[in-house]
């Protein structure tokens, strides 16, 4: 077990790689009641074209299968895992993103029992024809719920505009039609390909003794027979740097229009420190341009172009990355124009100044400290960073070292006419 | 188990609550103003905190104020409005880094107090009127905020249920007020209302973090001096009983139907049976092991979400679910059967234990966030009770099956609201 200390933050983390390849991290949090644990596989909605374990030919699986699998993991021959967690005073949940599926629990008692339950249920799939069919009704309602949600439609509408081939443009839950093709055999195939311990990470944060917990995980894993498995082979079609569509409109049952601008990165191949620098640089740039302390924000707000739903963010994963800026607005076309103008102006020397950079850095450092109050943030984000070979705890030192030139270069690389897209939700 | 201790100290017209803990990297200040919820004031009152957070005398523009917050290591400043029973509550919160985790040793907590004091006592005011441009902008945003409930069908269905259910009661008012009342507000009327609110509202300040209580008391008495007042109470009226269950069906262009059902629990926070009510709600629909989840979702595959929740001060229980437009009859009958099962005591010791464990867990988890601690403790102000965190835990433990059945039996179906797609129901 390796101990990693973060002195300024006064935190310590423990790490061990199990013999079967599973990465285990423990971060003790004194004074907290809650222990929060996530067990995550590097498998999300974009992993739909891959070489199944032991096979020679690549297959394409139905849209929404990673998410479907997540739902079905909770059902076992002797009942529902939710029941077991709540008997042990824990609340459990799971989520599927573009690149990850995470299973989690939080509890303030019986932590070791709950941890055992978490590891065991994720490592013991049980799918039958009947239970798979029954789930289609439930997930069908989940899909319909999102269909009625205009913010969700706007978000996916914009991603669909930006990406021509990359499966990030596919809705994580799939469609009612696509999930109708899912069978229990397919679920097993995906499971065995992606749920090998060497493709997974376990993170535990809370008032725990690291030695005890690590021993428990070690003992648990040793009992299970896992063969060594090669790294998963995924396939992605080539994606052009330019957006697929520069503009789209969705007519929905809303009263206030919505407008979101997307900027697609031309190169989403970075990982590790390079990727961390890029993400931080671009988020700093967006904060300087659109944060509440910016002149632009005041201007857009005074003009009645934005309200408190206005947001901005840049995020990247292996193979795709984009910035999004926008929100509810009575003047969607004007807002789109203004945002675009502001972004292009950022390429000119002197828009992003040393002062504004220093201020944005301070703000981000404070925000990070607030974030590490949250065990959920630590576990989820640490895992995401780790899957991209980044370290969550490098955020503050990397921010401190970020130069104006680096931020400017990242900005210049991102902003280009053919990478912009606009999606609007308009009243019917 | 780490149950936090609250120290309460009245400082003239303000009640200061301090909670000392070293588990957070930030310190949090939450300012609360409480007044009865009324049609005449609900809109002007919901505009107020948004004008206050925009700027101040010392920082007369949003950009200047926000730049100052950025300088304070991204101190967060946000405002919030809530309905708790028949009260309308304004919150202004500042969350600021604790400098002991920074290389820079500027005393940030003191600066946060000064800023809070500035925002409350030295707003951007000229000649007994708030800044004209600020008020105009915030009126526009408020209208959009009120309107936005229409575009989020889950929130909309919940709002419509309350509106139908509590027609004759102030609780039916939208937390952000009424769109048509926004236009009439002027810089002068808003300022006058603010002076009145500062003089009459019940004022509470919560400070939580790795703090020195004496130091915090010093800041509060120096920077936030308020005259003693007798806070106004909401009118206590007997619960309104409908002669028959009120049924409302509304058609809109939606794909998924939203079924929201309202019940009167006839029990509120502070009642002896309140803990039993919590356990009853938990077994019935509060969690993913509950009867509603098991029967509506897992067995019948009718819904992705189905849950019940309590409004503790108003004495309401609300069930919400997203179902197919055609599943109304089946869903309402399953939900009805589950409530009957609760009233008949048709639930096991296992379900009771499970639910108590999960509720206690939830409460302890709430103690791990500063905001959560404040919200739990503030129940005591609204209800004029003093239930400490330990009492919550033991209260929950002591609930018996008989008490749960008795709480279930007090629950009365009031209103069934269904939002459904066109041409179906």
TrEMBL record, chain A:
Residues 182-363 form the Peptidase M16 C-terminal domain. Residues 63-175 form the Peptidase M16 N-terminal domain. SUPFAM superfamilies: LuxS/MPP-like metallohydrolase. Pfam families: Peptidase_M16 (PF00675), Peptidase_M16_C (PF05193). GO terms for molecular function: metal ion binding. InterPro entries: Metalloenz_LuxS/M16, MPP/UQCRC_Complex, Pept_M16_N, Peptidase_M16_C. NCBIfam families: YfmH_fam. This is Insulinase family protein. It comes from Cytobacillus horneckiae.
TrEMBL record, chain B:
InterPro entries: Metalloenz_LuxS/M16, MPP/UQCRC_Complex, Peptidase_M16_C. GO terms for molecular function: metal ion binding. Residues 184-357 form the Peptidase M16 C-terminal domain. This is Insulinase family protein. It comes from Cytobacillus horneckiae.
